[in-house]
């Protein structure tokens, strides 16, 4: 396999319309005609040109049999983390599977038995709940604290929740989906130290790691000195970063060989070991040559964040928008806007049906999400602002009608 040279054009057009309807898009083809989908977490931007070139080259080869992940894929992954995040891990630490969600399910399977507890900080990514449930385990929820300083971890509550012997895994999200926090190095050190003291497996989903918009950089859990290398697992993938969710492949990074053996066994038991033939080519190109595209994407998303906040705070007074430190997912508090008795689930359905905009109800991310919505900002700005105008108008009308 050869990696195409870096794409030399200095500017990429993120305002270019791309019609995704009729392509099998989960995001768009599930949305009724005329509805702007701002819910599921994929982007509406064409991926980096170097990735498209690599995929064309792979298609031109014409044979698409079972794919063995080559050394080139592992080296591209390692090079990316060395350059961008100062983490140099050996090739032997890395396993691969079809995606981060299958990896989560495999790790739960490997280190729990049905009935065990799996802890998570809530509100939490909705697939965490399904992975826990599908393995016959129970979710141990530790609510994040939302105050004047933003969202933070209640470390005392976390340690108390992890103390029982039947709580075996802490599912951690860094940066956090949906509240948008980028955990500081000090916060990560405290989480890792608590996991070590309570002897749980610390499992860190870091798929949103490249989307950071604060003064705090994304810090891989694998670089944290208090993280027990024998009981820490990191998940990563370029699928979010380069909009490649349909060409799924993900990395599972673990230092301990016994841990890797158990995870590898669970990956095979769950039949999620055969990776996408196009994912390998896409990933290698993205990691080796995609940084110029990514840097311009981040600048465009910063503009979307600022524009979205300005519009919503002007047209929907009373909304409380959490500072978006990481991810491209805005977490908005509507509790100061909506009248008592109107749930966000009902609101989201009303907005979709009557006002042509689809946002995610906060309760999709657990009971702690009541009163909140999650809004995907990763689309061209003109479309985003039209969707947000519909959202603001619809919320105001719903509130008026309820009174």
Question: Your description of this structure?
Answer:
It contains twelve helices and 15 strands. Helix 3 runs parallel beside helix 9. Helix content is 40%, strand content 15%. A hairpin with a 2-residue loop joins strand 5 and strand 6. The longest helix is centred in the C-terminal third of the chain and has 25 residues. The protein has 403 residues and is α/β, with parallel strands linked by helices. The N terminus is likely disordered. It has a seven-stranded mixed beta sheet with strand order 2-10-9-8-7-3-4, sandwiched between helices. The chain is globular, with a radius of gyration of 21 Å.
Characteristics:
single chain; 403 residues; four-stranded antiparallel sheet; globular
What structural class should be given to the helix and strand makeup?
A: alpha/beta
Please state the average pLDDT score. Answer: 94
Low-confidence stretches: 1-10
Order of helices and strands: HEHHEHEHEEEHEHEEEHHHEEHEEEH
**Spatial shape:** globular
In short:
The chain has 403 residues and is of the alpha/beta class.
Write the topology of this structure:
Blueprint: H1 26-29, E1 36-37, H2 49-61, H3 71-85, E2 94-97, H4 100-111, E3 117-122, H5 126-134, E4 138-143, E5 145-147, E6 150-152, H6 155-162, E7 167-173, H7 185-198, E8 201-205, E9 232-236, E10 250-254, H8 257-269, H9 277-289, H10 291-315, E11 320-321, E12 329-333, H11 344-355, E13 357-358, E14 360-361, E15 372-376, H12 381-402
Parallel strand pairs: 1-13, 3-4, 3-7, 7-8, 8-9
Antiparallel strand pairs: 2-10, 5-6, 9-10, 11-12, 12-15, 14-15
Helix pairs in contact: 2-9, 3-9, 4-5, 4-8, 6-7, 10-12, 11-12
